[in-house]
Amino acid sequence: MSWALKVDGLGRVYGEQGPRSLPGTGPEHGTSVSPATGAVVAAWDVGFEVAPGEALGIVGESGSGKSTVMRCVAGDERPSRGSAYLSAYDDGRTDVLALDDGARRRLRIDRVAVVYQDPAAGLDLDTSAGGNIAERLTAAGGRHFGRIRERAAELLELTEVPLSRMDDPVRTFSGGMRQRVQIAKALANRPPVLLLDEPTTGLDASVAAGVLDLLRNLLERLGVAAVVVSHDFGVIEMLTRRVMVMQHGRVVETGLTDQLLEDPQHPYSQRLVAAARG
Amino acid sequence: MRTVTELAGTGGPRGIFDELSKREVRRAALTAVAVPGYQVPFGSREMPVARGWGSGGLQVTLALVGPGDRLKVIDQGEDGGVNAANLRRLVVGHVGCEEETDTRRATLIQSRHRIPETPLRADQTLVLQVPVPEPLRAVEHDVREQRRMHAQEDYARMWVGLYEDLVRNGVVTKSAGYPCMVNGRYLISPTPIPRFDVPKLDQAEHLTLFGAGREKRIYAVPPHTRVEPLVFEDVPFEVEHTPGAACRHCGATASYLVEVPSMDGAVAWVCSDTDFCTRNREVR
Amino acid sequence: MGYSGASGGHEAVLAAEKLVERRRYGGASAWLGIDQITGRLGLAVDRVMGEGGLWAPELAARALRQAEGDVQEAAQLIRAHRSTVPRVAYSEPVHADELRISRRISPAFRNPPGSQLLGRTLDYVGRLLDLMPEDQARARLQAADPSPEPVPAAHDLTANGHPTANDHVTANGHPTANDHVTGNGHEAGGHDGGAHGDPRRPPRLLRLLRSMGMVVDRRTEGDPEPYDITRAPIRPGVPRSARLTAMARAETGALVHLWYANTFQPGRHNHEFPGEVRHGALPVRVRHPLTGAPVTVTEVRVTEVETIDDLDRAEEDRSRLDLGYGMCFGHNERKAIAMAGLDLLVHRDAGRTGVEQEVLLTLDGIEASGFLEHLKLPHYVDFRSVLDRKRAVRAAMEEAVAR
């Protein structure tokens, strides 16, 4: 198989789950709220594949459903329907969305890692940078203090965090530095799939540029399959080769990132591109 | 149909614990033995001692003890302390079993904070009083989340705690009540026994039952069960030890010694296990 | 007598017990009769029954005397006593509408249906230490109120089933001295007693608010059988009946503290309106073992509160109000009001914060004070372990400095 992650027919509805909730929602209706039931169709019929070493972007405004898709794939919430497969789990034969909570949580240890917009969502701020990475390493069975220290140092070096800060609580770090620690933690057990949710949103422009540079280098070097969720075409352009545009819970356009930026077809894509080009 | 009087049964001498409740405790204890280290919730009753004063250990002991038993009760290793004496007279008065201080002859031992120095046998049962049963409380406040962590064997945050301790202090600072993995599955607090006593739980001949009355849980370490303190492979588990210390009564150096300070700064040491100390003196 | 000498523990315990008994049975003062305690210290007896979780005025009075007036200790005695007695029957559910009131106030309306009944309350009696000599006070009472009827002891209603105190019911919201309701449940004062016509069982404000469409209805079928917290451990996620039982047995001060502390939390508390504050008697019925018919075996006095609060969260129905419920044994309004407030607080919190856990696990006075006081027990084995680690840390620090 050529993919590391495959998602099929993913949907997430808040409120009544039945088919009554679907009609009247989507981009052509300009809403994701069902007129019949009031349910919110946050995402519907979303599918994609990501190959090792490849990065896929999901772009859209807030409320477009892009973060819902990411949270469902990550296991932070359960989708209403759809399936997802990881080549690194049971050779891609098992729908990981159907696994029980414990098994899903274990996937997060070394198969699928997530970097959140807010470092506090992925880190314990009162724990040291090294300790945060140790959480992942011990979850994967690491029991040798010396080797845990070595690996944590290696990861902090990789994400350009000064080793002198390794034993300081993350709370004492700047926003950009926290995000680098979160990336180090996500990479701790060499996951084949990495999900990035607005990884630079909320950082100052110059700091964000540094983190983006780091991420681009890492994605090129590590051979990881990445999904990058962002409202910002600038981020998508820098990190991804392919992109999906989402609006009101549906995918409205997919394509190669540079081509789509060059020649967006869907009016919504055109608007997003225009906004990014400023 | 039975009358209310029949339902109420005969008056008889009033116990401190009704029979149905004892059965419930036994059922919980059996579940605990079947799932080593798992904290079995039970409908803990109020006892004639305050919550936190051995009400859990007392319920377990009362559910197990019979008139033919020889009961030893110790607190801090001592048979003669006020709390041990009080619990012993309560059970003996209730059941009519024999009081015992000699560890070797006791069939049932209720203890607070110690495991006797003399190794226990398969025909003996140890009941430990538990003030705080939940080891995860050190890292997690929410009891629902604690249950999830146990269910999913998600103990990474305990390891992080250990990692942080070593980074900050250079040594593991957790003193008594050292968290342990039972049978490679469940994390327990072995009650505030000193680290010195933790190895005695590993592959022991005897059954240990832990009763937490206030928090309404019973758990167990059955005989021949692995009990491993949470430690990194390359940072050895340290037990309490003071070089040169010896019991001033019996001269023992390998028992658990407690300090007897004096205002002039001189420190003497005595065995905390008074039964062991007495017999050790006789041997000398 | 050593605190924990090698063999002196038993003797020390016996000696302590002797000193306690000397205080309990000895001394020069007059012996305190059970009827004096139930009659003169009724509110303390009520608290013991509430926190002990057992309606038994005479046992509670006995416990209070044994505990030298320590309510907490007396409640502990009652709880331990409960563990020794078998359960011969379970009472039938009783609707709170059957509550026969001796006091009912509703701060939410001036003239609520069913009227206000101020009843016996300390609320408006001057909070001044009464220094009048007892014989003068008795003579004054005799002169002002030469009622042939003796004032019953606080817990007598279980004996005769009817409160006969001189309670005042009015229809206009102002208690007046001359409107009397006699104890047999029939109106004597000739005034509007509400929809039922029975001023002792006034209609509920909740019913009115429901008919106005002003309260959300969150009755569910999910909690049909009351959760018995004395038989099953309580933990977050238990049904509401478990939460209410836990609070009914909670320590009054702890409930008041938690409620009060939450009033300082932004977003945690609006201004509540107790729609009902009731004190009265409820029948206890069990099924007759031969006929199977429900039989009233006794009555219990309870305080009941339904407190109303505003809904203002985004996910709440902001066009309506919601209701919290409190009920406890005896006359203890501050407990029932705090309980009702916390019931609603936990519901509205919906797991956002740890307040549910706090309510379920930290309010029991017997557990809290037992754990606190256990600190007095010998801890020298673990203290030695702590000292050992402190020395280890010190050695590690010195080593680090040397390097």
TrEMBL record, chain A:
Keywords attached to this entry: ATP-binding, Lyase, Nucleotide-binding
Region span, Disordered: 15-34
MF annotations from Gene Ontology: ATP binding; ATP hydrolysis activity; lyase activity
Record flagged with keyword Lyase: yes
SMART domains xref list: AAA (SM00382)
Domain called ABC transporter: residue spans: 28-273
Record bears the keyword Lyase: yes
One annotated GO biological process: organic phosphonate catabolic process
InterPro entries: AAA+_ATPase, ABC_transporter-like_ATP-bd, ABC_transporter-like_CS, P-loop_NTPase, PhnK
Pfam families, per the entry: ABC_tran (PF00005)
PROSITE patterns the UniProt entry points to: ABC_TRANSPORTER_1, ABC_TRANSPORTER_2
Protein name according to UniProt: Putative phosphonate transport system ATP-binding protein/alpha-D-ribose 1-methylphosphonate 5-phosphate C-P lyase
From TrEMBL, chain B:
GO BP terms in the entry: organic phosphonate catabolic process
Pfam families: PhnJ
Keyword tags: Lyase
Entry GO MF terms: 4 iron, 4 sulfur cluster binding; lyase activity
Domain of life the protein comes from: Bacteria
InterPro entries listed in its UniProt record: PhnJ (IPR010306)
Protein name in UniProt: Alpha-D-ribose 1-methylphosphonate 5-phosphate C-P lyase
Species per Swiss-Prot/TrEMBL record: Nonomuraea jiangxiensis
From TrEMBL, chain C:
Cited Pfam families: PhnI
Compositionally biased spans, kind Basic and acidic residues: 188-201
Bias kind Polar residues: ranges: 161-181
Domain of life: Bacteria
Record region (Disordered): 140-203
GO annotation (BP), single: organic phosphonate metabolic process
Protein name stated in the entry: Alpha-D-ribose 1-methylphosphonate 5-triphosphate synthase subunit PhnI
Lineage, uppermost ranks: Bacteria, Bacillati, Actinomycetota, Actinomycetes, Streptosporangiales
